[in-house]
Amino acid sequence: xxxxxxxxxxxxxxxxxxxxxxxxxxxxxxxxxxxxxxxxxxxxxxxxxxxxxxxxxxxxxxxxxxxxxxxxxxxxxxxxxxxxxxxxxxxxxxxxxxxxxxxxxxxxxxxxxxxxxxxxxxxxxxxxxxxxxxxxxxxxxxxxxxxxxxxxxxxxxxxxxxxxxxxxxxxxxxxxxxxxxxxxxxxxxxxxxxxxxxxxxxxxxxxxxxxxxxxxxxxxxxxxxxxxxxxxxxxxxxxxxxxxxxxxxxxxxxxxxxxxxxxxxxxxxxxxxxxxxxxxxxxxxxxxxxxxxxxxxxxxxx
Length: 302
Known about the structure:
It is built from eleven helices and 13 strands. By secondary structure, it is an alpha/beta fold. The longest helix has 20 residues.
């Protein structure tokens, strides 16, 4: 198939493009700025892809609190431009959008966890869990979901939206939490500085993320709706527990200074999603245990 990929130079895009090519697909990387509708329309219409994989976005959630307009323009307006170009295509099999589980935002259990009352069994969010986005990044992503649903209802746009979880295994960017903890501990034997200690998050290793994407792409013929998928795995742990697990693997004995980063307005204290629906569609499920993925990521940075 002809597959047009946005965000091809990003973490997921740089991994998925060569895999799709190895599988025999013809991969085209978007050349124009997502905010330039005329050029985007010309490029998309000329290429006439079978599938559009829309990964292009600003993804640093913490930065979105300080750059809300830039994040909204890139993530929402850029997606609106791409969708409006895609609806003109007659042969499009699927428009696949990289959303985020950050759209769940505030949930009733969040306040309880914030106060230190951790339930014995953590709730698992799925496609029916109400979305209450609570960061500029998340608000823009949820708005994209709604726009894609509108495009499906009004123009029949075949689409899938993936509420991605925290993915780790980067080799050249330590802004995100797993890589940041690892690199700080490798560089500083005595003390490191981190943000909040008690938010709970689930984590997916990059190999599993790429397998999920390729599984969905190779099963697009089963999608004829505006399908929404969460992808899990429901393995949420606190950032404190994550840091302790990494410290143990590194034999790091230093001190962690918590709350050393600028506060986030309305911090979310639980994000934990499952993958039952996408497994029923594609047969995919995560296979890399957290301890294994952490070891691989540590070895990358060592």
